[in-house]
Amino acid sequence: MGFSLEGKVALVTGGGRGIGKEIARRFVEAGADVVIASRKLENLKATAQEFESLPGRVLPIGCNIGKLDQIEAAVAQTEKRFGEIDIMVNNGATNLEQGPSLEVSDAAVLKMVEINVLSAVRFLRLIVPKMIEKGGGSLINIASIAGLRPQKQGLLYSFTKSGLIMMTRTWADEWGQHGVRVNAIAPGLVRTDFSSYFWKNLDENAQYPPTQPIRRLGETSDIGGIALYLASDESTWVTGQVMVVDGGATAR
What is the per-residue pLDDT for 1? Predict the structure, then answer.
């Protein structure tokens, strides 16, 4: 047992930076062969080079997860290079049009659903049937505490992450009998480029949020270990769960 992923193949979207990069690092350290996919191939190549000395292999693939043909190509390239996928991390996301709900545009709604929700559906349509055939796999969706409670002036992000959480529970119920586990991680505010809108102007000494028991911003390392646990054989009786990692922000 243990947190070894030797012999496993993982695909991590948004794997070139932030939370996705840290998850990929943990997987490669544990011996997995990992495909990192996102639109910015230059970030992926730099990450792959950074991980060269680690036990597992890394393959960077440029992929706009809002495009079905690119999702299909990413899965096909993964299988050609490493074999069938054992671990899928739906981490790639976007966050558009912060502001009052009545000012949200149709275009933003459609784009947020396409990237944050539909992309996961499309990946799993391709991956899960093969997981069922071989008797197992681990699917990890990166949600947010914004999917558990409203994010101020963040309707689109909240409802798409809430949708991802409900899909996690539905898929876990449906596929558990086949050995396919589906879990979500719901981070609080983590210090990444993606979330810089929310933390970049904070005083370094500020207690944020002021009611949060562990009074610091989250770091990507706080998320990576949870993902490694969910991907490993140490969590074979864990499915349909939302692992909240938020410094206690939602504890009250």
Answer: 46
Residues 6+ apart with CB under 8 A from 168: 139, 141, 143, 182, 183, 184, 240, 242
CB burial of 127-152 (b: ≥16 within 10 Å; e: otherwise) equals bbeebeeeeebbbbbbbbbbbbeebe
Rounded-to-integer distance, Cα 65 and Cα 94, Å: 10
Catalytic residues: 157
Give tens-digit pLDDT for 5-25: 999 999 999 999 999 999 999
pLDDT(204) > 60: no
Identify the CA nearest to 32 among candidates 137, 164, 128, 134: 137
pLDDT digits (tens, 9 = 90+) for 53-97: 999 999 999 999 999 999 999 999 999 999 999 999 999 999 988
Dump the DSSP string for 185-252: EEE-SB-SSTTHHHHTTS-TT--SSTT-SS-S-B-HHHHHHHHHHHHSGGGTT--S-EEEESTTTT--
What's the rounded mean pLDDT across residues 204-230? Answer: 83
Residue spans per domain, the chain: 9-245
Inter-CA distances, 78 with 15, 26, 73, 204, Å: 14, 19, 9, 41
What CATH topology corresponds to 9-245?
Answer: Rossmann fold (3.40.50)
User: Is the pLDDT score of 243 beyond 90?
Assistant: yes
d(CA 156, CA 140): 21
